[in-house]
Design goal:
44% of the residues lie in helices and 13% in strands. It contains 14 helices and 10 strands. It has helices spanning 2-10, 21-25, 51-56, 70-84, 96-105, 109-117, 119-122, 201-221, 234-247, 268-286, 291-294, 300-336, 354-367, 375-382, and strands at 88-91, 124-133, 139-147, 152-154, 160-162, 171-172, 179-183, 225-229, 257-261, 344-347. The N and C termini lie far apart (79 Å).
Length: 395
């Protein structure tokens, strides 16, 4: 019985196999979504090792509620958009392989990069690649779909398990060609990666509860306390004071007296508390370590340090994006040009680097007078438009 089950599992479409390019092209599941309806082998799931989530008794998917906080959402958006705004290119930029790969990934590059970056707040992200058949027996990309990461469980051996809805057992899926797994700072002890939002749970919780307390404080002390004294009907006096809070009008007798008692605390404690929680959020997400503390007494040096730290976070995110995008490019190249070297995916700012690159290029041309850069190089590296310059033929 075990042998029969073993053979049956080996025939599943999810099993990762070492296949030649021609065999890969015959796999039907390349042309449809499979993370929603396929079953697989019974394997044991590695529980989420995030110590904060374990102590709280929460799942990693529950961290999505933190994005409802305006401060956290704004900081995450700032960090993400800094990566999305970074130009990318392939090296080499010309050739049959590079042209084909660029044509396939350019329409979906922005969404793929956004899906890769989702590993920053949650530790890991999973995207499914749906291929399409092209002319001349080529395989292209139809679309890349980011799937809910809680459907999947990364393992310590770099495999990935898929849990279909209602299933308690995991199915090992193909991460070589079909699924793109991105993890942020994974370790053998924590194959799920480091979730940025789990470090923000307590600041988010206290900030949310503090806001509720602040609203209650305003309801209680937002208006002066009215203290009335009368020798007549005290109940009637109390009703008059209640109506006075809404209408700001009260009628009293000659012997009656009403005085307003203003609160002695104007809420400075909440302002300090709110500022402390906001700084915690910004430090964790944006890496601000100086300017958020100096406040109004900031200086150019503080701003420079702040920008340097943020750039370090941005470059770390870019390295993670480059690694996953390179995997996607390698797959496309292997499927269509098995013997070719995959082009290299590069993300970097073109602006601000001209002087350094120009000095390097000048050194190279002086060392080798026969060296000449192409028009594509000047467009990609220096951001020059083709109508703004022309290359003279060397005699």
């Amino acid at each position: 019985m075990n042998k029969i089950l073993s053979k049956w599992w080996q025939k599943t479409l999810f099993q990762t196999q070492e296949l030649s390019a021609s065999q890969v092209k015959l796999k039907k599941n390349f042309y449809k979504e499979t993370a929603i309806d396929e079953l697989g082998s019974w394997l044991i799931q590695v529980p989420d090792p995030d110590t904060i989530l374990v102590k709280l008794g929460l799942s990693r998917a529950s961290l999505r509620s933190l994005e409802g906080d305006d401060e956290i959402f704004a900081a995450l958006e700032t960090r993400r958009e800094a990566v999305l705004a970074t130009p990318w290119r392939l090296e080499p930029g010309e050739g049959v392989v590079s042209t084909f790969v660029k044509d396939q990934i350019k329409p979906c590059a922005l969404n793929v990069i956004r899906g890769i970056w989702a590993a920053v707040p949650y530790g890991y992200s999973v995207q499914e690649i749906i291929y399409k058949k092209l002319a001349d027996n080529m395989i292209g990309i139809d679309r890349v779909v980011e799937k809910p990461f809680e459907w999947f469980a990364p393992q310590a051996d770099n495999t990935l398990l898929f849990y279909s809805p209602g299933e308690l057992s995991g199915t090992q899926i193909d991460t070589k060609y079909k699924f793109l797994l991105t993890r942020r700072l994974p370790t053998y002890r924590n194959p799920y990666g480091e979730a940025l939002l789990s470090r923000l749970y307590w600041p988010w919780y206290f900030r949310t509860q503090g806001l509720k307390f602040w609203v209650q404080f305003l309801e209680r002390f937002g208006q002066p306390l009215l203290l009335g004294s009368t020798s007549g009907d005290k109940t009637e006096m109390a009703n008059q004071l209640v109506r006075a809070i809404q209408d700001a009008v009260v009628v009293i007798g000659q012997e009656d007296k009403v005085e307003a008692i203003a609160p002695s605390n104007a809420g400075e404690s909440f302002s300090r508390f709110e500022g402390a929680m906001e700084r915690r959020v910004q430090k964790v997400i944006l890496g601000q370590t100086l300017t958020t503390d100096v406040g109004d007494s900031g200086s150019f040096a503080a701003a420079l340090v702040h920008d340097t730290v943020r750039q370090d976070r941005r470059l770390a995110d870019i390295r993670m994006v480059i690694e996953s995008m390179q995997l996607l490019i390698n797959r496309l190249t292997q499927l269509n040009f098995p013997a070719a070297q995959p082009p290299r995916f590069v993300m970097e700012d073109g602006q601000g680097l001209e002087s350094l690159r120009a000095a390097r290029d000048l050194t190279l041309t002086q060392a080798n007078p026969n060296l000449a850069f192409t028009e594509l190089y000047y467009r990609d590296i220096y951001g020059l438009e083709s109508e703004h310059f022309q290359l003279q033929q060397q005699s």
